[in-house]
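Example record for the data management plan.
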Amino acid sequence: MDWSLNLNFLAAMLAMVNPIGLIPIWYELTGDSTPGIRRTVALMVTATSFFILLVFLLLGKYILGFFSIDIEVFKIAGGFLLMFTALSMIQGSATKLQDIQEEADTDLKLAKLRFEKVMVPLAIPMLAGPGSLTTVLLYSSSATNASTYAGLSGVLLLSYFLLFIVFSFSHYVENKVDDIVFAGFTRLFGLIVAAIAVQFMVEGLGEVFPNWMEGGSAVDTDN
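Corresponding structural encoding:
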């Protein structure tokens, strides 16, 4: 097992997932629910994101190959999707649910109803978006045997387990902070997400059109 690769992957995933930075968004999407319901929603969100990334970790290169999709094109498309999410975060619409008065017989059913509303944008594309998917694909390309895949899968599980812990106990922090602070941080995080989206698009376009990034032209002007 390559411990150096696993530690690098852990650092990269924690940077992409950013558990602490997601607390304001998590609060705005689920802050009106009880801690028990929020914990169940957190489990659903993190488990969904984890399994999406696990599939790409183990089968991503085959999936992209089957559809003849290059990683560069994937970055561009993912960047566009992330930009739409960033703009809605800045405007406040990404975390403003239309109907928060769910009715159900049990807390589990209430959690399922809320999960259906927050899966986008929280699980996709924030937790399982272009950044984390690209990171997973890049590190999976370094895996050469089953033990390496097992190590990377374990790191992925650890990353999202830590995120689940942060979401589950975030109410201890939220109780000490005013709502307007979370609203402000959500919009600030939207600006950061927008910058990340532009970076992914520029990187993808630069790899598809290298002459454009070098200041030249991809069009041959010679007769």
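Summary line stored alongside the record: The chain has a mean pLDDT of 84.
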